[in-house]
Amino acid sequence: MTNDDESSKILMLMAHRGFIWGPSPEIYNPVKGSYEFGPLGKLMKNNLENYIRKLFRKHNFWEVQCPLISPEIVWKASGHVERFFDYIIQCENKDCNNLFRVDTMLEQMGYDLTEINLNELQEFIEKEKIKCPDCEGNLGEVAKQNLMITSKLGFPSSEYILRPETATTTYLTFPRLYNFNRTNLPIFVFQMGYAFRNEISPRKMLLRTREFEQCEGQIFIRPDQELNFEPYEERKNYKIKMWSAKAQEQNDKKSVKITLEKAIEQKIIQKPAYAWLLYLAYDLVKGLNIPEKNIRLRQHKDDEKAHYAHDAWDIEIKSKIYGWTEVCGVHDRGDYDLTRHQKYSKKKQLFVPGVKKGEKIIPHVLEIAFGVGRLFFFALEQAFKFEKERNLLDLHIQITPVPFAVFPLMKKPAELQQISRKIYEDLIENDISAIYDIAGSIGKRYRRTEEIGVRYAFTIDHQSIEDKTVTIRNIEDMSQKRVKIDELIQLATNLLHNKTTFEDIPEI
Amino acid sequence: MTNDDESSKILMLMAHRGFIWGPSPEIYNPVKGSYEFGPLGKLMKNNLENYIRKLFRKHNFWEVQCPLISPEIVWKASGHVERFFDYIIQCENKDCNNLFRVDTMLEQMGYDLTEINLNELQEFIEKEKIKCPDCEGNLGEVAKQNLMITSKLGFPSSEYILRPETATTTYLTFPRLYNFNRTNLPIFVFQMGYAFRNEISPRKMLLRTREFEQCEGQIFIRPDQELNFEPYEERKNYKIKMWSAKAQEQNDKKSVKITLEKAIEQKIIQKPAYAWLLYLAYDLVKGLNIPEKNIRLRQHKDDEKAHYAHDAWDIEIKSKIYGWTEVCGVHDRGDYDLTRHQKYSKKKQLFVPGVKKGEKIIPHVLEIAFGVGRLFFFALEQAFKFEKERNLLDLHIQITPVPFAVFPLMKKPAELQQISRKIYEDLIENDISAIYDIAGSIGKRYRRTEEIGVRYAFTIDHQSIEDKTVTIRNIEDMSQKRVKIDELIQLATNLLHNKTTFEDIPEI
Q: Which residues form the Aminoacyl-transfer RNA synthetases class-II family profile domain (chains A, B) (predicted)?
């Protein structure tokens, strides 16, 4: 299969097997970049969200949920009204008049964006004599287009903004969180939810859409705590693959696998707390069974950094379809956010005691920002494996839509179905997701379930009636063992929570 | 405590204990009807959503997730552009000019809305000589105000609509669902997510807000299947409290507790499939430990029904603070929706085979529509119990934010803390939510945890060091037993999944 063939097949299977449908609404004129999660996609997305929640909770993050719609002052204070824009350019040919996002246009023309200064786009376009990619017409001037989506509400109506990120709405709750945390810092908190951006050209399926979901974790912390951070000590020997701004500038194409401690010694990063957050981001992605060769941390160069960032690294994943793409940003935001909100709101509660007696300081913020849709998309596309006789969806057991299947070998005798049905219902009763299928040959049923990410299939055969055992089949390598029906629920639970492996199951 | 005192105390505790904060953003000028879920509120809301998901999944509903933003044609087809409005009226006094939602205004003036025909509001206001409730000025004419919120997106920009309900976006996926379900009916599907309405006057905390979350389940079904519905047979002896339109018209103030079968025999409802959906709605609410005296099903009278409804019943809950309020609507929508979408989209895939050979029909829809925020609010407010010495939050173990607490009796000897910490970490490791607290006397720690819904507290004392047992305290009645540390995880798991009760724990 060529790469293009494989990409098409993956996208086709995502739709046909009920993972992602769209662009939506399919029965009308679809909206660009608008997608639906079908039944299997939604099960997987719920599991992914639970996987993320569990990891954040394990590290003592609280979760909050804030409004999607907020007044303009919030986004003036955050800096988004002034600085949250894309550079756009329009074709001057009246028959075309197409509008382009400048960076995307240049990228598609084959320019290496990492070598272009975004503040000098106009000069670059003139120097290179770049024309409209659609009609070869002359292009107008580079302009800035704010990406926030507004809406009018109330009577008389006022303008509100659909939040372009969750992070800022979390910052607004700081005084409440500080009291909730019994006035202690650091505070660990995350929010998972929608954000909205008026993208110039939605594209690449779930990767660039106008409504999308984020999971953004924040640590409110004092500067002295950033340098003396207990969780870091436990993880400082953890290795991550880093591609620093310096390496990028020196045209060094390769990332370096290095411990957090070494990265700090070598001054690639500065702060233990920030280093720990890089570990958290990296570990979350790796834990989804995404091969490490397709993961790296890339540092933002100075001209790439967002207006609030002291330091910024992206987790990038090498997509089978779209190449290296950001899935998570880790940002050292300093005291930018709470200082701005203090200035705009004049609220004293944004100050906290510093280390020196009587000193009042504004807490600093370290942020980890995931795109949930992107993480979903990458976890799914990386899992497709096309073998000679079958399509295997090799998803991590904790995020796969349905980890178990129950099959009676044949429809008759009725006892086969009765035993199977009982096993299926026991699994469901114990919160273990499973499918029950009696349609078609056992081989066909294996093929169907392999394609949607089932990890283990229990098959009930004639021997089951005699000795109360069934076969368990490991979908990955198609190997089989017999297990006792009595021990099946406990076994499934242990497999689901990684407390046992297929290899560890004793032969009976 | 008077009712008002109790209401204030409940609302105060909801905020102070980290359940609901707002109106948001609190550090700026808050937006009416805009709230945040704090750390405990969010944990509880996640649990509530999982509780709902589990119940729907148990009844073989698939889940989908559709876009929040959709093109106008969708809402023309659904009937919302034409018919989704509130009646409003404005004061003509130029110094006032206040705007009112007519039904709310009349209700607050003490009129019984069930006795007013909504199509004759203008006549009613003139007849009763009603003046502006704020300034006694003359009121203008009754007008219709569409409740949908629009937004402009794209380049050049077009108008889009923030969906006013999830249901319609689920209907649009019918052709996909039908194939996914191997072209079988009925199809059971639900969607849990945001909807947006430009409410004239957001009020009553989470009960009427402009952005809110729904959980709407749909059954796509043939008319013959509505009358011959297997799940109904299993539940026909289930009793629900019904207050029919007829009883309301006859001024009969009381609901009648009756089996589904009797309700059909007496022609209070017509269809077994619809009856089963009433059971599902009722059972979901009752399962949250909301006392049955505070639950009833109320039928819509003809002039109340939405434009799509053949029959409509609301589950109402008697709020401690706001009185009887709808939390769920169950609607027999007939073939209204798919017929409209077929007409507007011209798509053949909205037809399915009927019973007669060669016949093509449009599937019917039965709907169950919950307000998630409302359900959350009612479950929470009903759980507050103020006793002489303590505030108890008596939440169902499956939705309470943190079901377990672990306390070393005292800070020393260090072994007490070591054993406690180990138990706490074991619970977390096994996905069992718990808090660990060493601050203050054991009595104070009990009080603090009772107030936030902890169900069971494990206390580690000197005897624990000797014989590896701890006390488990049932927060509800403050009774205690000793249990073995070795068996604690299994015990907690069983309590959490209702597989054992505190009473069943053997004394050792």
A: 33-401
Question: Are residue A306 and residue A361 in the same domain, yes or no?
Answer: yes
Measure Cα distances from B501 to B286, B394, B450 in Å. 19, 15, 18
The tally of domains found in chain A comes to: 3
| A400-459 tens-digit pLDDT | 999 999 999 999 899 999 999 999 989 988 889 999 999 899 999 999 999 999 999 999
How many other C-beta atoms are found inside a 10 Å radius of the C-beta of residue A357? 6
Mutate to test the interface with A, among B26, B28, B97 (most CBs of A within 10 A): B28
B216 and B310: one domain? yes
What's the pLDDT tens digit per position in A374-411?
Answer: 999 999 999 999 998 889 999 999 999 999 999 999 99
Please report residues of B whose CB lies closer than 8 A to that of A341: 27
**Interface with chain A: mutation pick from B19, B145, B153, highest number of A CBs within 10 Å:** B153
The pLDDT value given to residue B159: 92
CA A154/CA B202 separation, integer angstroms? 9
- We report the CATH number of the domain holding residue B210 as 3.30.930.10
CB atoms within 10 A of CB B92: 13
A223-227, B73-77, B102-106: lowest mean pLDDT where?
B102-106
Inter-chain CB proximity A34 and B69 less than 8 Å: yes
Within this chain, do residues A138 and A260 fall inside the same structural domain, yes or no? no
Q: Please check whether residues A295 and A436 belong to one and the same domain.
A: no
Residue A130: give the domain boundaries: 85-146
The pair phi, psi for residue A305, each rounded to 5°, is -60, 140
Query: ipTM exceeding 0.90?
Result: yes
Specify the residue for token string 């990955």: A476
| Nearest-CB residue to B67 (from A149, A169, A211) | A211
CB atoms within 10 A of CB A356: 8
Cβ neighbours of A355 (radius 10 Å): 10
> pLDDT for B427-470, tens place per residue?
988 889 999 999 999 999 999 999 999 999 999 999 999 999 99
Task: Retrieve residue B90's tokens.
Answer: 């404005």
- Asked if the model's pLDDT at residue A113 lies above 80, the reply is no
